[in-house]
Amino acid sequence: MKTRGFTLVEILVVVALIGVLAAVAVSLINYPNIRAKMRDSARVSELRTIQTALEKYFSVNRIYPSSSTWVADLTNGGFINVFDVSDNSLYSGKINPSDFTYATTAERDVYILYTQMQVESSNVGHECSNLNYWGLHTGNPNLALCYGVESPGAFSDN
Questions:
Q1: Domain range for residue 117?
Q2: What's the structural domain count of the chain?
Q3: Per residue of the chain (158 residues), what is the pLDDT tens digit?
Q4: Is residue 103 a part of any domain in this protein?
Q5: Less Cβ around it within 10 Å: N or C end of the chain?
Q6: Alpha-carbon distance 54 to 48, whole Å?
């Protein structure tokens, strides 16, 4: 009686075909771009966390923290507890404040907060050049990659 089954050659051919298809699929997926978009999403989430802490600070003090001491003001006041200036790991659960730029007016009644994205399409709708108080910015950020927010109700008198 003859048993039915696959020969070793048939199995090896199928395994080789699966390997070739997997290699093609992996090469079609833009893995570095996906990782960059993941980092951008994490950075937006971190920026929103900082923005929430800034609003909590404002609700208690009726002014925003100064541009030079904002990290210490938010941390020491208990408004945020996830800053870690020594750890720049995306997956640490901590926020590295050096990834963000914060600026406020002399009166400390409005602010801008921005960061640099890695993928140009990540900042759609939050382009830094659209901020009403963009004139407060420091440095020379790449506007095509700049993601920014400002204090709620911030508007320019211009």
A1: 38-150
A2: 1
A3: 567 888 889 999 999 999 999 988 877 776 778 888 888 998 899 899 999 999 999 999 999 999 999 999 998 888 888 776 555 544 456 788 888 999 999 999 999 999 999 888 888 888 888 888 888 887 788 888 899 999 987 665 54
A4: yes
A5: N
A6: 10
